[in-house]
Amino acid sequence: MTIGAMIFMAVAWVSVLGLLGYTWAKLLRVDPEREHLPPPGTSL
Amino acid sequence: MVNDAAAPREQWGSRIGLILAMAGNAVGLGNFLRFPRQAVENGGGTFMIPYFIAFILVGIPLMWVEWGVGRHGGMRGEGSTPGMFEALWKNPLAKYLGVCGLFMPVIVLIYYSFIESETLAWTFFSMIGSTQGLDQEGMRGFLDSYQDPLNGGVHAAWVPIAFFLVTIAVNFWVVSKGLVAGIERLAKFAMPLLFLFAVILVVRVLTLPAHEVVEAGVTTSYSPWDGLNFMYTPDWGALAQPKVWLAATGQIFFTLSVGMGTLQAYASYLTKRDDIALSGIATAATNEAAEVVLGGSLAIPAVVTFFGVTGAVAIAKAGNFDLAFIAMPLVFNQLPGGATIAGLAGLMWFGLLFFAGITSSVAMATPALGFVEENFGWSRKKGAIVLGILAALLGLLHVLYNTRGFLDEWDYWAGTFGLVILALLETVLFVWVFGPENMWRELHDGATIRIPRFFKFVLTYVTPVFLLVMLVWWTVQEAIPILLLHDKPESEHMVRWASRAVMLVILCGQLYLIKLAWARRAARQEVG
Questions:
Q1: B450 and A43: CB-CB below 8 Å?
Q2: Cα–Cα distances in Å, from A11 out to B30, B167, B179, B226, B298?
Q3: How many CB pairs under 8 A join A and B?
Q4: Do A16 and B285 make contact, defined as CB atoms within 8 angstroms?
Q5: Given an 8 Å threshold on Cβ–Cβ distance, is A1 in contact with B225?
Q6: What is the pLDDT of residues B451-479, one digit of tens each?
Q7: Of A41, B153, B329, B383, whose CB neighbour count within 10 A is largest?
Q8: Which pTM was predicted?
Q9: Do B512 and B102 meet the contact criterion of CB atoms below 8 Å apart?
Q10: Which residues make Cβ contacts (< 8 Å) with residue B14, sequence separation at least 6?
């Protein structure tokens, strides 16, 4: 693979997997089964 | 007008189930077939720049808009966009504009079920080894005969009809079970399996040994990494082309299933206490992972390894069907391990496409079912049976006339152009008519995260303008030539106009049902 292709692929994968990991970690931590935290406070 | 006849509405059983169902709705055939083709045809690695910009400026905001519109309407007893739009805009016109969110999912459901039935058929063919030993011509004949049953060939005409009817029956059996016992249970089963199949296939593809391919008399050795290189090599000149930006925005639309009316229908089963801010973005992230990481690492690297770059370009240009139903089975036939591995790989590939399809198609049935349940007092089962029979009858037209342009027309007007119209309408209503402050409050009701204020500006100004530019551009560049049938063979004109006429009849029928539903509401209120 060329360096350019590798960089584009790495940035795309890291962005997507990072967002996936972040949101699902928060989701599972906050609300495993339909329980709710008090009103918004956590920052994105 | 308040829907005072609406019965108490079902609710999602769990938040994880809801997000898997929402992600199942979004993850479809496009993640594994359309995305890699679009990337290859629109600048390779540089395609990811407009793609991610469109994801941030259009995809994520529309996700929130649709969750917000859906929950706001659902709390007022509305499970489809005619009622949802009226809940946002007290104007007699609002409910008729909402027909888009009934029309599009019904139309797409019908032809999408046909494509889905092909993935089911090929799952079966892979299991019994029907495509093993076929060369490229043999594989094409196998596909053509299935797609054109009126012309005979390998398959008897009843084969595609039978797989289509089975697919419709499975879809409507799932939705007849209701939200939790049907749709949510399907998502909890199908989504993990889809990801498992995709991960196994990606690992297999990326660990393939290099393969020698003869291109124009020269033998070159290709590995799957050459496929990734081919897909991600940047072409900076592509960024200057408007068509690349529109292709990227279009891909974001299709992949997230926004502008369809389905996300709103699912979100209508939420309560004010339920979060939509984090759930919306988690759904989008799940879809993007399936698309960029898994979808982008499967078909193109596999095809480049066995057919070389020239062959891959030709296959990508020939379309999604060639990639999925001809090239991939040919790749599987050449995998080390013989017939067993080829059958297993085919089973996983077409199985994952089927799961991706069915988790989307059950979502498409939801708005229409909600509409008849809430406005005409139909039971879920009765609605599923009637809509299922209608979908089966209309879908047979696609099974029989697919190669003559019947499906293309529905795919363009409802499955492509229509999405931007609904997206623009709902954004204007939710953000401008309902008001930016109300919109912002609605998104934060029950929220477990606070959305950055940057997105308030994006939602208010950037997303609507982006959508308007896209709509105008598509109208001028594509819609008008397509409407006038430029570049279409004369022999297809009659079928294409017939296809449009059927769509028009469905649209008028739905407008009439909306009129009737509101007349009944008015009559009930007078009596009350």
A1: yes
A2: 22, 39, 38, 18, 18
A3: 115
A4: yes
A5: yes
A6: 999 999 999 999 999 999 989 988 988 88
A7: B329
A8: 0.91
A9: no
A10: A33, A34, B184
Cα-only R_g, chain B:
23
A14 Cα to chain B: minimum distance (Å) = 9
What value does the mean pLDDT of chain B take?
91
d(CA B191, CA B248): 25
Mutate to test the interface with A, among B56, B300, B448, B456 (most CBs of A within 10 A): B448
User: DSSP per residue over B39-57, as a string?
Assistant: HHHTTBGGGHHHHHHHIII
**Close Cβ partners of B475 (under 8 Å, ≥ 6 residues apart):** none
Helices of type H across B242-337: 242-256, 262-267, 277-288, 299-318, 320-321, 328-333
For B69-116, how does the pLDDT look when each residue is reduced to its tens digit (9 = 90+)? 999 999 999 999 999 999 999 999 999 999 999 999 999 999 999 999
- B44: closest chain A residue by CA: A5
Q: Are B44 and B231 in contact (CB under 8 A)?
A: yes
Residue-wise DSSP of B482-527: HHTTTT--HHHHHHHHHHHHHHHHHHHHHHHHHHHHHHHHHHHHHH
Q: Say whether A8 and B46 touch across the interface (CB within 8 A).
A: yes
Please choose, from the candidates B74, B1, B24, B71, the residue with its C-alpha nearest in 3D space to the C-alpha of residue B371: B74
Strand partners, B75: none
What does the alpha-carbon distance between residue B42 and residue B232 come to, in Å, rounded to a whole number? 11
At B202, the amino acid letter reads V
Q: Are A1 and B289 a contacting pair at CB < 8 A? A: no
Q: Shortest CA distance to B356 belongs to which of B290, B279, B297, B407?
A: B290
Closest CA relative to residue B445, chosen from B60, B95, B74:
B74
| Contacts with A, B 413-452, CB within 8 Å | 444, 446-452
Please state the ipTM of this predicted complex. Answer: 0.87
The residue-averaged pLDDT of B160-170 equals 96
Which residue has tokens 């076929």? B134
